[in-house]
Design brief:
The complex is a heterodimer. By secondary structure, chain A is an alpha+beta fold. Chain A folds into two domains: 8-73; 76-153, Pleckstrin-homology domain (PH domain)/Phosphotyrosine-binding domain (PTB) (PH-domain like), CATH 2.30.29. Chain A contains four helices and seven strands, in the order βααββββαββα. In chain A, strand 2 (76-79) and strand 3 form a beta hairpin. The longest helix of chain A has 30 residues, at 12-41. Chain A is elongated. By secondary structure, chain B is α+β, with helices and mostly antiparallel strands. Among the domains of chain B are: 1-66, no CATH class; 170-243; 344-390. In chain B, 47% of the residues lie in helices and 28% in strands. Chain B has helices spanning 10-34, 39-66, 104-109, 134-148, 155-159, 169-178, 181-195, 202-207, 209-215, 217-243, 283-288, 318-325, 344-368, 375-392, 430-434, 460-470, 472-479; strands spanning 5-6, 68-72, 75-80, 86-91, 97-102, 111-117, 127-133, 162-166, 247-250, 254-259, 264-270, 274-281, 290-297, 309-317, 339-340, 394-397, 401-407, 411-417, 421-429, 437-446, 449-459. In chain B, the strands form four sheets. A seven-stranded antiparallel beta sheet of chain B has the order 7-6-5-11-10-9-8, sandwiched between helices. The chains are: A alpha+beta, B alpha+beta. Chain A binds chain B through residues 1-2, 80-83, 85, 89, 91-99, 101-102, 126-129, 131, 157-159, and chain B through 94, 96, 119, 273, 275, 298, 419, 421-430, 433, 443-446, 449-452, 460, 464, 467-468, 470-474. Strand 4 of chain A pairs antiparallel with strand 19 of chain B.
Chain lengths: 159, 480
């Protein structure tokens, strides 16, 4: 097997993902509450409600406690002079190679939670695909974007 | 060639016609639904529609007046727009494909519609000249190919080409017989009838028929059969009209593909803009030994998929493809030998097809008893398809070229040059890891988005081999 790429994403990503997990959980719970209420009104069999409640406990647990850790552990990236290599995935591990000469442009993206923690995502676009490196330190993301766009500019071939 | 030019005046009629066609359904709906209360209401709605038509006519004429194009400094410069004036300058060297279409209206006046595509994204082609004279069109084409030749090259030589392929009557017949157009015709008819739902009182017509129908099932079966047969004939004729006179010519730098009888189409695709080559064989054609060859191009838009997947050989004996195309595409090696998947992948293909079907079949047999056994047919089909998928998947790696083959319903083989592959990725799920298998996917640019090849359950060692081949730095690691 090939050696994995070296760099990890910021460990503050864990906090961010947990927060967004909590937000999602609240949304999920309010939907579940409405569903339970409706089920009660329409006299649906009680086992449906039980299943719903069990799911409403399990999913937030996974999304707040388990998945962020696994996801953070599985995320690796490396930006070298001639190519970008990404590795991610909890259950299905995906590894992607993007040659620098194929990069068309680079974005940094920052939602409200990411901004609060001074993080940003870098999105690399080729002519056909786009690849996101999530939750990097703001300064690092900025540097990376600069670095990639500088290297990508060397490319002469066009589509 | 730098004076601003207008399109042929007929354009104003064409655009008006198009807009009215889009308006006509809502207008009928308004007139029908609103006109019940009395004469005044009817008059008002009629007046409104009349005004609407007048306005579209006026804007049609105005937009024709405003639309000009010219050639300047190796760019085609288009200016258009009534209220919002827009200018679009397209460098000639960025042009990916040029499509020319002669619809019925255009043919009446000896005109063509020219669509110019770049790699940019968007709903329509980057420049659409809806109707210009044929001489104009030829001039544009020469201008474009001259700019690609660096300007100093002779324009004369560029247009004379070498015939690569002409469809024979026999091939046209096979193509039409095996094209999947029947479904399109049938669904179009259904769509039409469901649209007319509000106007035709089906209930009143068919209410009394129900009883009659029960007694005449055979009759109905015959009618349905005849209907299907007619649909098939219609689709046959449509396919024949569309692909009649299919010829491919190669000039110095371009492929020029032209086809069609009622609506003549011509596509020019620069050879160095070709992103990948794809051979697609549906089951029937594969049994007859035929296939279709496409070239993936970066032109094309979300509205016009054909611009991205340009059919270069609509129907051809698969054995002939190599001999026919390779001389014209010196970079590509259209190999026909593939490394198959390892034996242990077969089980994964079978299991994947059974996850869903086996429970369905089991449920059918348990609940429907004897009739449920019919679902075994489904199981057989799915299993057969899985085996075919396993058998057909494969890959081939050349010096500078990756070839991936897989099957969904049709078998598709894609040939990609290393420097056209936008990104390469390998996947490994938990179950694949246990058997040292993985999934390989490569993307190339095609139209607005991407296309590519994917092979599921390849030998992990092979995947890593290809991964190293694609990586610029891993390779160096290996050799040094």
């Amino acid at each position: 097997m090939l050696a994995s790429p070296h760099k990890r994403i910021s460990n503050k990503a864990l906090t961010v993902w947990r927060i967004s997990g909590v937000i999602k959980a609240f949304i999920g719970w309010s939907v579940t509450a409405v569903a339970l209420f409706l089920l009660h009104i329409f006299d649906a069999p009680s086992w449906i409600s039980v299943i719903l409640i069990v799911l409403a406990v399990i999913f937030p647990c996974l999304h707040i406690l388990v998945f962020p850790v696994l996801r953070w552990r599985s995320w690796r990236y490396e930006v070298r002079e001639e190519e970008i290599e990404l590795e991610e995935g909890i259950f299905i591990k995906t590894r992607t190679l993007v040659p620098m000469v194929r990069v068309q442009h680079v974005d940094t993206r920052q939602g409200p939670i990411l901004r609060r923690y001074k993080l940003a995502s870098v999105v690399v676009h080729t002519a056909a695909t786009s690849h996101e490196i999530p939750a990097l330190e703001e300064t690092e993301a900025e540097e990376l974007r600069f670095f990639i766009s500088k290297l990508a500019r060397v490319a002469e071939e066009d589509v | 060639m730098s004076k601003p030019k207008r399109l042929h005046p007929i354009v104003s009629v064409i655009t008006t016609g198009k807009r009215i066609r889009n308006l006509i359904i809502p207008m009928i709906a308004i007139n029908v639904s609103g006109g019940r209360d009395g004469k005044i209401a009817l008059l008002v709605t009629l007046a409104i529609s009349l005004v609407a038509i007048m306005i579209t006519l006026l804007t049609g004429i105005l937009s024709w007046l405003r639309y000009t194009y010219r050639f300047e400094q190796d760019e085609i410069r288009i200016e258009y727009g009534i209220f919002v004036r827009q200018k679009r300058y397209i460098p000639l060297e960025r042009i990916q494909t040029i499509n020319m279409t002669e619809g019925l209206i255009q043919q009446l006046f000896g005109l063509v519609k020219v669509e110019i595509e770049t790699a940019g994204s968007g709903e329509e082609a980057e420049a659409v000249l809806s109707a210009i004279t044929k001489d104009e069109a030829k001039l544009i084409q020469e201008c474009v190919s001259a700019s690609k030749n660096g300007g100093d090259h002779g324009i004369q030589g560029a247009q004379e080409g070498q015939k690569v392929f002409t469809i024979s009557p026999q091939e046209l017949l096979v193509l039409s017989l095996t094209s999947g157009g029947v479904g399109v015709v049938i669904s179009a008819v259904f769509a039409l009838f469901s649209q007319l739902d509000d106007f035709i009182p089906y209930k009143r017509i068919f209410g009394g028929l129900e009883e009659w129908a029960i007694h005449n099932i055979l009759m109905i079966a015959v009618i349905v059969f005849i209907g299907l047969f007619l649909a098939w004939i219609i689709s046959l004729i449509i396919a024949m009209l569309k692909y009649a006179n299919f010829t491919v010519t190669k000039t110095e730098r371009d492929f020029i593909i032209s086809h069609g009888l009622l609506e003549k189409k011509q596509i020019t695709i620069p050879i160095r803009r070709i992103q990948a080559i794809r051979i697609s064989e549906n089951v029937v054609r594969q049994m007859l030994g035929y296939g279709t060859v496409y070239v993936e191009s970066a032109g094309g838009s979300s509205e016009n998929e054909e611009g991205a997947n340009v059919m270069i050989l609509p129907i051809i004996r698969v054995k002939q493809i190599k001999a026919l195309l390779e001389p014209h595409l010196p970079d590509y090696v259209l190999t026909t030998t593939f490394t198959p998947l390892p034996k242990r992948a077969k089980w994964r293909y079978l299991m994947r097809s059974w996850y869903i079907t086996v429970p369905i079949v089991a449920a059918a047999i348990i609940f429907l008893k004897l009739w449920g056994l019919l679902s075994l047919i489904l199981w057989g089909l799915v299993t057969g398809n899985a085996l075919l998928k396993y058998r057909d998947a494969g890959w081939n790696l050349g010096q500078q070229q990756l070839c991936l083959r897989h099957r969904s319903l049709t078998r598709s083989t894609i040939y990609m040059k290393k420097n056209r592959i936008q990104s390469l990725s390998l996947q490994e799920s938990f179950f694949q890891k246990r058997r040292e298998l993985g999934t390989l996917a490569a993307s190339v640019k095609s139209g607005v988005g991407g296309a590519g090849g994917k092979v599921v359950d390849m030998e992990m060692g092979d995947i890593l081999y290809i991964y190293r081949w694609y990586s610029r730095e891993r390779q160096r690691e290996n050799s040094g």
